[in-house]
Amino acid sequence: MSKLNYLLPIALLASASSYATDEDTWYAGARLGATTYSDFTAKNFTVTGLDNDDWGGDFFLGYNVNDWFALETGFTYLGQAEFNTTGELDQQALDVVGKFTKGINESFDLFAKAGVSYYMSDLGTNSDENLILTAGVGAEYFFTKNVSARLEYQFYNDASLNGTSFNADWDTHFYGASIVYTFGASKTPAPVPAPVVVAPVVEPVVVAPVVEKKPDPVVIEPLTVRIRFATESAVIEQKYFDELAPIAQHLIDYPEAKLFVVGHTDSMGARDYNQDLSERRAATCCNSLI
Asked: Which residues of the chain have pLDDT under 50?
């Protein structure tokens, strides 16, 4: 248990110091849940009266390298396995994993994690430390740009304790919920449908009669229409078609005019998803004008 007393302050210090980076890509969080142990293989004793369920939790710190990949580290307390005759087996782990994320919509992501864990175990006078593989899956929901919550499962493969009077190996399973805070991100309220701006820019029309003095160019005033879409929608509501009609007539009257159609979304959700939605909204406006 002494390792827990030393490592918890280190994890807390890492979480606090990340705020000083003032970078949008850093995040920190805390996780709490249940642990269970399976496939116990004892080498010098008989497993009897095993209680293989307990609680666990951790603090973690992460860095988003890009939209889909992050590096994450944290110290996890993995509870105790209790034996009737042998005692209580304490377990902790220091994880270093890669986190792979797939954005589903503006607020919801799925992710998988894989990496290594420095696993520490103690039972009475027996203690051991070893490097093992760990992996996990989960889902994350963003309440705002700063705050999100996760539900996840993590697997620790082939943990072991090789001591003077206790030799065994096993697998550890962690099921938990997390709260995550992203430093530096702007605090954004619930998503509000963003407008799509249709902004035609009309080129000058030069009238050049056969006279010595050329008239000044004729400049056509641009027309602008803003169309608002429902959240996650690229369908134009019927009430906006009357507003698009003058734009269409303008293009008929001035066929050399250039039309700029700009699509937007709000700032919530994955970048790839928002880019695709913006392009679909702009395309819908173009098709309607055609």
From this structure: 1-23, 187-190
Instruction: Identify the CATH number of the domain defined by range 2-182.
Output: 2.40.160.20
CB contact at 8 A, 170 and 39: yes
Q: What is the pLDDT of residue 1?
A: 45
What DSSP designation does 233 have?
Answer: -
Helix (H) and strand (E) counts in the chain? 3, 11
**Exposed, middle or buried by CB within 10 Å (0-12, 13-18, 19+), for 108?**
middle
CB-neighbour burial class of residue 181 (10 A; exposed 0-12, middle 13-18, buried 19+): middle
Q: What is the pLDDT of residue 184?
A: 72
What pLDDT is attached to residue 45? 67
Q: Say if CB 1 and CB 121 are below 8 A apart.
A: no
- Cβ neighbours of residue 238 closer than 8 Å, sequence gap 6 or more: none
What residue segments make up the domains of the chain, in order of their start? Answer: 2-182, 195-289
pLDDT for 5 equals 47
